[in-house]
Specification:
The complex is a heterodimer.
Chain A lengths: L7 E2 L4 E2 L5 E4 L2 E4 L4 H7 L6 H11 L5 H17 L3 E2 L1
Helix pairs in contact in A: 2-3
Chain B lengths: L5 E5 L26 H14 L3 E5 L9 H11 L2 E6 L6 H10 L3 E6 L4 H8 L4 H11 L5 E8 L7 H10 L4 E6 L4 H5 L1 H4 L3 H18 L4 E5 L19 E4 L5 E2 L20 H7 L1 H4 L9 H4 L4 H4 L4 H8 L15 H8 L12
Parallel strand pairs in B: 1-2, 1-8, 2-3, 3-4, 4-5, 5-6, 6-7
Antiparallel strand pairs in B: 8-9
Helix pairs in contact in B: 1-2, 2-3, 6-9
Classes of the chains: A alpha+beta, B alpha/beta.
């Protein structure tokens, strides 16, 4: 996954409406920190760069480079697990 | 008390397949005793309200229920994640569209073997070609797709090719599941039990596939129970994660709990799910460690395996409270090890 990728949540995976989990086939992944906000932006339209920009605007006090690295790391991990597709 | 994560709904015991290892009870529930549409809708609403995440529609064959789209829609409306385990027999593109439109999110299809003749022999019916033909149809829909390869002595030597077949079908998930010896599988155990050599040969094949498929297909492999030294946390521990409703409405802690003597099971026609989960004698019977032998009580693994499988302990020792014989600390472990060396039966025993 790169900054230009337009990731989306894989078919058969979705955010639980009230609990902090991503429902996936045969399981639920607990969402920590801004994971839900990132996944809400992971819509197959926005690029990774756009997701990072929007998230940085939500957290103006945080280091933008750190946010970028965290977003990429999380999305890469989820892609490897098959619950996000680039 | 935390609600179960999953609710398994055995909608019917009717099924076009007659698999040699069917996990349904030997004494199946009859059509006229099946829960009504309204019963199931009430159950799904109660499950969602108590915090259940996943609903697994199974059977038998869920497609045998004419009200399946309505059931799926009610479960999704209630907030449940809807998975269906199907043989695919009778599932047309049109019918599948109805189910996906109703809210189906994940579909599981199992394959019995690589080649048609053997697969149909194991399934007791001609289903292999139907399943293969269904896969490109599934791909047209926004749906997670799992392939389940059920392995045993008759096909374990072809595991590598079997995985390649699954790989070509490009599922999101691939499960490699050794037959577990309950129901019909127990009757056919001597026919199905893999040899030790087969099991040892299969392990690097699974590891290689896991590496190769990483990021494309999520692989889950279940180790064959009888070759283990420690028991599995059956259904995630008794009354901890899973609740199963059988076609007639009995609420069970696991697929085969009805074989256990001295148990009574509440029915969703008379009680609501939360009451059954929290207060019923069946769900409380093996919670905690009060029922355990001193060996288990003082063992730190009790937090991992919760005492293993009660049905297996009963089937292999005659005592529901016994240590699961898969455990190396069980006085019966030697009997289980002896079963690993299998002698072929002449003929398989199919369910009716």
């Amino acid at each position: 996954m790169t900054n230009e990728s337009t990731p989306r949540i894989a078919p058969g995976c979705r955010l639980h409406p009230t609990e902090e989990v991503l429902l996936i086939p045969e399981g639920a992944l607990e969402l920590a920190g801004p994971a839900r906000e990132i996944l809400e932006l992971t819509d197959g339209q926005r690029t990774v760069a756009a997701i990072i920009t929007e998230l940085s605007a939500q957290y103006p006090d945080a280091d933008a480079a750190e946010i970028g690295a965290d977003v990429l790391e999380m999305l890469n991990g989820m892609e490897e697990r098959g619950v996000v597709r680039a | 008390m935390r609600a179960p994560f999953s609710l398994i709904a055995e909608l019917t015991h009717r099924c076009p397949l007659h698999c040699l290892y069917c996990s349904n009870p030997l004494e199946m529930q009859r059509v006229q005793d099946e829960l009504s549409t309204e019963d199931w809708k009430r159950v799904f609403a109660q499950a969602a309200a108590m915090g259940v995440f996943h609903l697994h529609l199974t059977g038998g064959e869920p497609l045998a229920r004419k009200d399946l789209p309505e059931l799926i829609a009610s479960a999704r409306d209630a907030g449940l994640y809807v998975n269906m385990i199907t043989s695919g027999v009778g599932l047309t593109e049109e019918k599948l569209k109805t189910l996906v439109d109703a809210g189906l999110e994940h579909l599981q299809l199992s394959f019995q073997d690589l080649d048609e003749e053997s697969a149909n022999h194991i399934a007791g019916t001609r289903a292999h070609a139907i399943k293969l033909a269904l896969v490109p149809v599934l791909k047209k829909f926004k749906l997670a797709f799992t392939i389940n390869l059920v392995v045993h002595r008759m096909n374990l030597d072809r595991l590598d090719e079997f995985i390649q077949l699954a790989e070509e079908l490009e599922p999101d998930r691939l499960e490699i599941a050794h037959v577990q010896y309950y129901g019909w599988a127990l009757k056919n155990r001597s026919l199905l039990m893999p040899t030790e050599e087969q099991v040892i040969r299969s392990l690097p094949i699974v590891d290689a596939a896991r590496q190769r498929l990483k990021g494309r297909i999520h692989l889950e492999a279940v180790f064959p129970d009888y070759y283990g030294s420690f028991p599995k946390a059956c259904v995630g521990g008794w009354g901890r994660q899973t609740m199963l409703i059988d076609p007639a409405g009995q609420a069970l802690p696991c697929h085969s709990a009805t074989i256990l003597p001295g148990m009574s099971f509440d029915n969703v026609r008379e009680r609501d799910l939360r009451w059954i989960w929290e207060f019923s004698s069946a769900f409380n019977r093996f919670r905690g460690d009060a029922w355990m032998s001193d060996t288990c009580k003082s063992c730190e693994r009790k937090e991992k395996d919760f005492g293993g499988c009660r049905c297996q302990a009963f089937m292999l020792t005659g005592d529901v409270d016994a240590i699961d014989p898969v455990c190396m600390y069980s006085p019966h472990h030697g009997d289980l090890v002896a079963l690993r060396v299998s002698k072929p039966d002449l003929l398989p025993i199919y369910r009716g």
